[in-house]
Design a protein that fits this description.
The structure is a single chain. This protein has about 400 residues and is of the alpha/beta class. Helices cover about 50% and strands about 15% of the residues. The protein has helices spanning about 20-30, 45-50, 50-60, 80-90, 105-115, 125-135, 155-170, 190-205, 210-220, 230-235, 245-255, 285-305, 310-340, 345-370, 380-385, 390-395, and strands at about 10-15, 35-45, 70-75, 95-100, 140-145, 175-180, 230, 265-270. Helix 1 (about 20-30) packs across helix 7 (about 155-170) and helix 12 packs across helix 14 (about 345-370). The N and C termini lie far apart (about 45 Å).
């Protein structure tokens, strides 16, 4: 919704409902005459066959300011998956390519790096994104890298234009742009952000009031959004997490590798809707519980890498503080839902925060037993140092 509020660390670019899609796209066409935008679309075989992906392709046909499109296809073991994806993106022309991460050519390249002790054996969105970045880095004309998910039900080009423009307009000077939006249908969604991450960051600020990374994370309105854009330099120097910690891990790398005054977040001007993960309260190995544990351990390990000492008593205190703050949030969400005529199940929300509270200490135990965890995928600077021709061979593997 329109407002003027600016956070204290990063810039917020609001939707003030004053810019038309035509004006945004005209600015993008002018701004990209001397530099290309590379768009990364990580997609699974099942999502490729769902209705939102076809809608995204239809919208991208008109987005002529996007110079290169990489559809990074994963969880797609069959040749038929690859062939169907190629047919679906054919209307986008030669600027769009399918990077089949399960295909024999890319798998052979992965094995080469794995043999050199580079951790690439874990499949998933993180590896798909990392691979697509490497593909685009072989094109010296691509200066801006943009990523968004492929299960967005209400996708439109205004979303894409607002994500791209802060990075390419000559009057602006940003290196990273993160999307935010309201995930609302007839009820509030975004449970991990609303009921875990937001109250957790407030609890962290209480426990570590001087920590600038926690303050940085707390400035993002939707820190788990899968939509962001960044410069070529950050695409080359950022490491990539291979699990559900991808989004928080990306923010940790941005915090490490650029100035905070060159970071912004942008309102995508829509009620964002995509597929929902099951809560799976009784099973920590799947659904939102698995996601919560990956996010929490990523934050813990990032804080530890900054010299913060995290002990058993820290996690006990953090859990108690989180619970109190999250319960206050439920009261606030209930009021917001009532005034906006949304369905709101307070009991389910309470059960969710109790489950997330257990995750706070469970993730602490995971961290204590394995402070390093699954290593992030190394940045492309390291890969190119060890294998100078690897991005070129990766590009050649894509038909």
């Amino acid at each position: 919704m329109p407002d003027f509020y600016q956070h204290d660390v990063i810039t917020t670019i609001h939707d003030l409902r004053s810019a038309s899609l035509d004006s945004l796209e005209n600015m993008l066409r002018e701004s990209t005459q001397k530099q290309k935008i590379g768009l990364v679309l990580p997609v699974t075989a099942s999502d490729m066959r769902a209705a939102p992906f076809s809608k995204i392709v239809e919208e991208l046909e008109v987005a002529d300011y996007i110079g290169s499109i990489v559809v990074s296809l994963g969880v797609a073991p069959d040749q038929a998956d690859y062939d169907e994806t190629c047919r679906k993106i054919a209307p986008l022309g030669d600027r769009a390519k399918v990077l089949w991460t399960d295909g024999p050519a890319v798998q052979s390249l992965y094995e080469e790096l794995i043999d050199a002790d580079i951790p690439l054996s874990t499949p998933g969105k993180g590896r798909s994104v990392w691979t697509a970045f490497g593909y685009l880095l072989d094109d010296p004309n691509v200066e801006t890298f943009v990523l968004h998910d492929c299960d967005i039900v209400d996708y439109n080009r205004q979303m894409l234009a607002r994500l791209c423009l802060p990075m390419v307009h000559p009057s602006l000077d940003y290196e990273f742009c993160k999307a935010y939006y309201a995930r609302v249908t007839d009820r509030m969604h975004g449970r991990v952000v609303r009921l875990l991450v937001a109250p957790l960051l407030r609890a962290f600020i209480q426990c570590f009031p001087e920590n600038q990374f926690v303050r940085f994370l707390g400035n993002f309105r939707y820190p788990l959004s899968g939509e962001f854009s960044l410069t070529r330099n950050l695409a080359r120097t950022n490491r990539v997490a291979s699990d559900w910690g991808l989004e928080v891990g990306t923010l940790a790398e941005v915090y490490r590798n650029t100035s905070l005054k060159r970071v912004c977040q942008v309102d995508l001007a829509c009620l964002y809707e995509h597929k929902h993960q099951e809560m799976s309260i009784t099973d920590s190995k799947r659904g939102l519980m698995k996601m919560a544990l990956d996010i929490l351990t990523t934050i813990y390990r990032t804080l530890a890498s900054q010299g913060i000492v995290l002990s058993h008593s820290t996690f006990v205190t953090l859990r108690a503080s989180f619970l109190r703050i999250a319960q206050d949030c439920i009261r606030q969400y209930a009021a917001d839902a009532r005034v906006n005529s949304l369905e709101y199940n307070r009991h389910d929300e309470e059960a969710a925060i109790e489950a997330f509270a257990r995750c706070v200490t469970q993730a602490g135990e995971i961290f204590a037993n394995d402070p390093s965890g699954n290593p992030a995928i190394p940045n492309w600077t390291r890969i190119r140092a060890a294998f100078p021709d690897f991005p070129k061979r990766l590009r050649e593997s894509v038909c």
